[in-house]
TrEMBL record:
Belongs to the IPP isomerase type 1 family. This is Isopentenyl-diphosphate delta-isomerase. Its EC number is 5.3.3.2. It comes from the Bacteria. InterPro entries: Idi_bact, IsopentenylPP_isomerase_typ1, NUDIX_hydrolase-like_dom_sf, NUDIX_hydrolase_dom. GO terms for molecular function: isopentenyl-diphosphate delta-isomerase activity. Residues 27-159 form the Nudix hydrolase domain. It comes from Sediminibacterium roseum. Keywords: Cytoplasm, Isomerase, Isoprene biosynthesis, Magnesium, Manganese, Metal-binding. It is an enzyme of class 5 (isomerase). HAMAP family: Idi. Pathway: Isoprenoid biosynthesis; dimethylallyl diphosphate biosynthesis; dimethylallyl diphosphate from isopentenyl diphosphate: step 1/1.
Length: 170
């Protein structure tokens, strides 16, 4: 059974809980989001697999997940990028934020999200159990799609994307 690390608003660990239970009870837990760019400045988007327990089939950032109990968040980010998208690259933590988003199936994401950025121009080999598809997409096109078809994207991407865009422009 997969567990997540419960945290307070300062990201101090307060224990662990099974992942599904944490999402059922809307308990704050540690997570990470990875945003990969290529040399053209395009962002690598992932379309979540249809078998995901929430946000199935929606587009989002390159990779996101939770560190395991006892696992460093940066190490977990590198591990999951390789597992989900089939490549490795150096990652830089750029900021973190807390968000809460509820879903129609009764689950809630309440996460202290560590955001990492990396760069990659090589091949992508997504795990089909994690990602139904992927696309390198310009920031301008992502902004256009977020406005014209917001329902195509995950709740957390709507929150994190503008923060990443602002970080890149600063």
């Amino acid at each position: 059974m997969e567990e997540v690390i419960l945290v307070d608003e300062q990201d101090v660990s307060t224990g662990t809980m099974p992942k599904l239970e944490a999402h059922e009870k809307a308990v704050l837990h540690r997570a990470f989001s990875i945003f990969i760019f290529n040399s053209k400045g395009e962002m690598l988007l992932q379309q979540r697999a249809q078998n995901k327990y929430h946000s199935a089939g929606l587009w989002s950032n390159t990779c996101c997940s939770h560190p395991r109990p006892g696992e460093d968040t940066a190490t977990a980010a590198l591990r999951r990028l390789k597992e989900e998208m089939g490549f490795e690259t150096e990652l830089e933590k750029v900021f973190d934020f807390v968000y809460k988003a509820s879903f129609e199936n009764g689950l809630t994401e309440h996460e202290f999200d560590h955001v990492f950025v990396g760069y990659h121009d090589g091949a992508v080999y997504p795990d089909k159990n994690e990602a139904a598809g992927y696309a390198f997409t310009s920031v301008n096109e992502i902004e256009r799609l977020l406005k014209s078809q917001p329902e195509l994207f995950t709740a957390w991407f709507h929150i994190a994307f503008p923060k990443v865009k602002e970080w890149r422009e600063s």
